[in-house]
Specification:
Elements (H helix, E strand, L loop, with lengths): L14 E9 L2 E4 L4 E9 L6 E8 L3 H4 L7 E7 L7 E16 L4 E9 H8 L6 E4 H13 L5 E3 L6 E4 L6 H10 L8 E5 L4 E5 H7 L6 E3 L10 H4 L5 E5 L4 H7 L3 E8 L4 E8 H4 L27 E6 L16 H10 L4 E7 L9 E5 L24 E13 L2 E9 L8
Parallel strand pairs: 9-12, 13-19, 15-17
Antiparallel strand pairs: 1-2, 1-5, 3-4, 3-20, 4-7, 5-6, 6-7, 8-10, 11-12, 14-18, 15-16, 18-21, 19-20, 20-21
Helix pairs in contact: 3-4
Length: about 425
């Protein structure tokens, strides 16, 4: 991150460019009334959401008034960034937590992406054929697209013909993502603060070969006065519960079995999946190889988690083989792996960051010692927890021209073998 000494004075500083409520053709500048703004983005969520907390001493809520047709436009920018800003228009869904006093009242305005409104009222019932990424793009362009573009990170090798039965656009898109892959079947459709994305977790990791930035969890009392370095400091860190062996076994993470039955050919097949071996074939944060987060000898039995899928060979025109054996169990394990080893970190906010980025995180060992001669800084880093992470969600909080972020980050492998 480049530092502009004229504009960037301290970490977490942010410029609130506008907070405007639009109602029935009229625009209201409410920037002076808003005490706090929170925006959420998550690769496991199709849409962004958020809210603003308003301290209203001007009776603004009765001037509008809110009736279900309002929108709110937000724009925030980190000083020093001319173009890298978070600027979005959202649909106001509700007003909650309203507290009325003698001369002032406070309330929360909740909002969601504009595209969510279209999804909630539209239903699709027509035939789609082609590669899965091209179908998703067509559904997005025809039914959802408003002000943001869809960025397709990779073209899929999968194709299908399908007729959604009065499904919403997002339900159909998510159904397609479950069946899509280029290499690893962990494709997601999500919204970041810049664009919508159709990408596999593996594809995001591949794109992260060039790490976005490096964050360090430094001990309290660190006195680094460089503003750019402060942006890379983790102020708080917590581990989200992980390594739950029973939960992983029940979910079929370690191993599982798929049974397919073709009702036309009267053909029955069984396919076993072993995540320890499959991990070596998938591109992960610390490349391929023996970097699994669990040992090979962990108790497992593919018969403990079985799934059955039926096929109908050429029963209908253009009916393609769904190739369940290539994605059903593999996606199940990969999606569990994406939530298996996670951290929540709090860092100074910046408006050039987005979910789906890969960062490097330096975490010291719990036992602290003074540096000795001939010992490098790397010797004091946790060899398993330090390394690359994928940002899966960000909670942006803007308060009094201060921007703070709570990020959930995940890793699917260790930097060195167990």
């Amino acid at each position: 991150m480049s530092e502009n000494p004229e504009l960037l004075k301290d970490a977490s500083e942010v410029t609130t460019e506008k907070i405007i409520v639009t109602a029935r053709g009229k625009s209201y500048d409410v920037k002076s009334l808003v005490m706090q703004t929170v925006i959420y983005e998550d690769i496991f969520s199709n849409m962004m959401t958020g809210y603003v907390v308003v301290a209203d001493s001007t009776n603004f809520i009765n001037k509008v008034p809110f009736s279900g047709l309002e929108q709110i436009t937000l724009s925030f920018r980190t000083p020093g960034f001319r173009s890298e800003r978070i600027e979005r228009t959202f649909y106001i869904t509700s007003v909650s937590e309203r507290a009325i006093a003698e001369k002032e009242q406070a309330y929360t305005i909740n909002f969601i992406s504009l595209e969510a409104v279209s999804d909630n009222v539209l239903r699709i019932s027509k035939k789609f054929s082609g590669t899965t990424h091209s179908i998703v793009k067509k559904v997005f362009d025809d039914y959802l697209k408003d002000k943001k573009n869809l960025v397709i990170k990779e073209n899929h090798v999968t194709s299908l013909s399908a007729v959604p039965t009065f499904w919403s656009p997002l339900k159909f898109i998510n159904w397609i993502c479950n069946r899509s892959y280029k290499q690893a079947p962990n494709v997601l459709f999500f919204e970041g603060n810049k664009n919508f994305y159709l990408a596999s977790i593996e594809g995001l990791i591949r794109a992260g070969d060039t790490v976005f930035d490096t964050y360090s969890f430094l001990p309290k009392g660190s006195t680094d006065l460089n503003v750019s370095n402060k942006y890379k400091n983790i102020t708080r860190m917590s581990v989200i519960p992980y390594m739950d062996v029973f939960r992983a076994q029940d979910y079929g993470y370690y191993t599982s079995k798929l049974i397919t039955h073709d009702i036309t050919l009267k053909q029955y097949q069984e396919f076993s999946h072993d995540q320890y071996e499959y991990h070596k074939k998938v591109y992960n944060l610390h490349e391929r190889g023996d970097t699994q987060t669990f040992p090979k000898t962990i108790p497992k039995n593919s018969e403990a988690y079985r799934r059955v899928r039926t096929k109908q060979y050429n029963m209908f025109e253009e009916n393609k083989d769904p190739m369940y054996e290539n994605w059903v169990m593999q996606r199940n394990s990969l999606m569990y792996e994406a939530s298996n080893l996670r951290f929540s970190i709090e860092v100074p906010g910046r408006t050039d960051i987005e979910v789906g980025k890969v960062i490097d995180v330096l975490i010291p060992k719990s036992v602290a010692k003074a540096l000795e001669g001939g010992v490098s800084n790397a010797d004091y880093l946790d060899p398993y927890l330090s390394g690359k992470y994928l940002i899966t969600s960000i909670r942006h909080q803007f308060t009094m021209n201060k921007h703070e972020m709570t990020m959930e980050i995940m890793k699917d492998s260790f930097k060195q073998p167990l």
